[in-house]
Amino acid sequence: MPGLLLSDDLIFTSRIVATARAHGLTVVTAKTAEALLAKAKDDPPAGVILDLHNPTLDVAKLRAELPGVRIVAYGSHVDVERLKAARQAGCDLVLPRSAFVDKLETDIAGWLL
């Protein structure tokens, strides 16, 4: 299964998908958590990337629905509480958006495989 991405930000989604493609990876995108879970049930992914600012996201519910799946999340560096909550909800890696962008090129394969 390809990796999954939850994001409703078209420009950022395009950047992530293009980076994955450059590494020979496929990323299936979803704009809502419900759509992401439906795609994951069809073919469980090894990794999921979450935009913590997606309005449909409930990280704890998603973590419970995807046991054993690597979850990498990113969000605004000033939203410390949301980043902390994502860690507490069981995300494997939580990064401020700037760090996510810095690591995207080098780490995306590890996040999705």
From TrEMBL:
It comes from the Bacteria. SUPFAM superfamilies: CheY-like. Gene3D superfamilies: 3.40.50.2300. The modification 4-aspartylphosphate is found at residue 51. Keywords: Phosphoprotein. InterPro entries: CheY-like_superfamily, Sig_transdc_resp-reg_receiver. One of its GO terms (biological process) is phosphorelay signal transduction system. Residues 2-112 form the Response regulatory domain. This is Response regulator. It comes from Limnoglobus roseus. The lineage of its organism: Bacteria, Pseudomonadati, Planctomycetota, Planctomycetia, Gemmatales.
